Amino acid sequence: MTLLSNRLMRNPSLPCLLAIGLAATLQPILAQATDSVSVQFVSFPAVSDPQPVELVAGEGKILEVQIPSNVPSPVYQVARSGSWTLGKSGQQKDGKPQFTVFGTAPSLASTKQLILLFRKGPANADGFKVIPIDSASQFGKKMFLVLNLSREELATEIGGVKFALKPGAQQIVSPKANQGEDLCHVELYYRKDEKWKPFFSSNWPLHEDTRSMIFIYSDPVNSRIKFHSVEVRL
Hints:
By secondary structure, this protein is mostly beta strands. The chain has helices spanning 3-10, 14-34, and strands spanning 36-44, 53-58, 61-65, 76-79, 83-91, 97-106, 112-119, 128-134, 144-149, 154-158, 161-165, 170-173, 183-192, 195-205, 210-218, 225-233. It has two helices and 16 strands. A four-stranded mixed beta sheet has the order 4-1-7-8. A hairpin with a 5-residue loop joins strand 5 (83-91) and strand 6. The N and C termini lie far apart (52 Å).
């Protein structure tokens, strides 16, 4: 019989004490895992040279983040927060620090979040509409995210999945490859003057290691309905 077995026989409460000790050891590790969030950023409409912005990443902590348009940004590991606030730090005339907010939105419960930034104008200082997406469980491989930020109602069919989107709504779907092994057909219509008008029609890649985002929006400059897409490699 081993030394540990002898100790357990003499002290029946020892397993409970060991369990408590193990839980106490793991608690800081678990707390650290649940208090950390992975975030990535995508901005649109696209600009030729998207400048970084700053993310409020904790009490008194500012983190510079990239906001590309055609691919997601690098992954940033930050402390969990009740909201995501982006902007630019600087100084007031009297030399005191200040932070100019470009956009903010409530955070999600997910540990992996994709944060979409819809530009209100050509410059970062014009502001953003901030839209967090759960990229851990809701938006996986071979899925499509369609976001309607236009002023028109949309009718959409992706790989045989049909749905409508009112202004401001979004939908995540899992289409079928209905145009060959790795292709699905995408059709978009918008409603204008009580009539449905075709807007986009094309075959779209559908691979195991990718997911796609389609943004429909009203251009901040001329209000024309525009289309922007991003393919994300997992």
